[in-house]
Design brief:
The protein is about 30% helix and about 20% strand. By secondary structure, it is an alpha+beta fold. The protein has 2 domains: about 120 residues; about 160 residues, no CATH class.
């Protein structure tokens, strides 16, 4: 299996736009059917051996515990209950409106009374159009989606290795349906007062100092796949500090800055995995040093026991 296969945004833009809305529909079901956790950790998807999952949720209104799985090998959506019942349908050949209808029908057939509270796209150009009326987005290239899932799976493991180097509070590695990225976030535990006027979602997500690392597949702002990192609140002079490798750079992002390493630059390196990991660690170190984070929370190789760490050094 090729490490970090090529996946330029233009090669699957139409499919990505459709799939993004599919994920938002199921993500909003997850939001409605799961107990809230700090920083919204209950909401994103997690990876499986064949795609992504909501994880078990419910029961809702007397129904069963259930989960919703995207299978990106067989290209099907499956709703499964704890008792073993299942309703599924193909992902191909469906508009967003079709997918929305068929997903709700699958839930109803299993006696699950949950649906999105706000059945509209989030932070997308057609945010005022209900999913049920979107017949425009219907492209679905199975080969491109399988490649997206393979890239997602490889980056997931890279972020797990990166996450192992920090023993403080850290999020799971999870795939966000609203922004279509995969990320892991480290926390300093120092409380932060979000900017005046911040919405409730933002206030909860950034109630502590964070350094987040992740990957996205390209969007209107950065039209190509890229690894990224940001520190929030952003320390003074952050963008004056160098990043590794030399191809990495600081980029403006809605009034703050992202550390960016373009996916193709990582792919072109002699050691793509090591290059991407080094980038994430360098961006973290810059942010942590300027924000005054405690270095004792770092645990190379995932080892926190000092005796084992010293033995490993020899």
């Amino acid at each position: 299996m090729e490490l970090f296969p090529n996946l330029p945004l233009e090669s699957w833009r139409d499919t990505k736009e459709t799939l993004h809305r599919f994920l938002q529909i199921v993500g909003k079901i997850r939001l409605a059917g799961s107990p809230r956790r700090n920083h919204w950790w209950n909401v994103p998807f997690h990876l499986t051996g064949q795609g992504i999952t909501t994880r078990p949720m419910g029961p809702v209104q007397g129904g069963e515990t259930f989960c919703v799985d995207f299978d990106f090998v067989a290209h099907r959506l499956a709703v499964r209950t704890l008792s073993g019942r299942e309703a599924s349908f193909p992902l191909t050949g469906r508009s967003v409106a079709d997918f929305y209808r068929d997903t709700l029908t699958a839930l109803i057939s299993l006696g699950i009374g949950v649906e999105p509270e706000h059945p509209y796209p989030y932070d997308l150009p057609d945010a005022r159009r209900p999913f049920a009326e979107d017949h425009e987005h219907h492209a679905y290239d199975p080969a491109a989606v399988t490649r997206y899932w393979r890239v997602l799976s490889q980056v997931n493991l890279l972020l797990e290795e990166y996450a192992a180097g920090f023993s403080g509070k850290t999020s799971p590695v999870h795939h966000f349906w609203h922004t279509f990225d995969i990320a892991v976030t480290r926390f300093s535990e120092r409380e932060v007062e979000p900017p005046a006027g911040a919405d409730p979602v933002t206030r909860e997500a950034y109630s502590r100092e964070v350094i987040s690392a992740g990957f996205w597949f390209g969007d209107a702002d950065v039209p190509a796949p890229a690894f990224y990192s940001y520190t929030a609140p952003e320390p003074d002079d952050l963008t004056t500090r160098p990043l590794r490798p030399e191809t990495a750079e600081w980029a403006d992002s809605r009034g703050s800055h992202l550390a960016l390493l373009m996916y193709d630059d990582a792919r072109a390196a002699s050691d793509p995995w090591g290059t991407a990991l080094d980038f994430l660690n360098s961006a973290y170190r810059v942010g942590a040093d300027l924000a005054g984070w405690e270095r004792r929370r770092e645990c190379p190789g995932g080892v926190t026991d000092q005796r084992l760490r010293s033995a490993g050094a020899h």
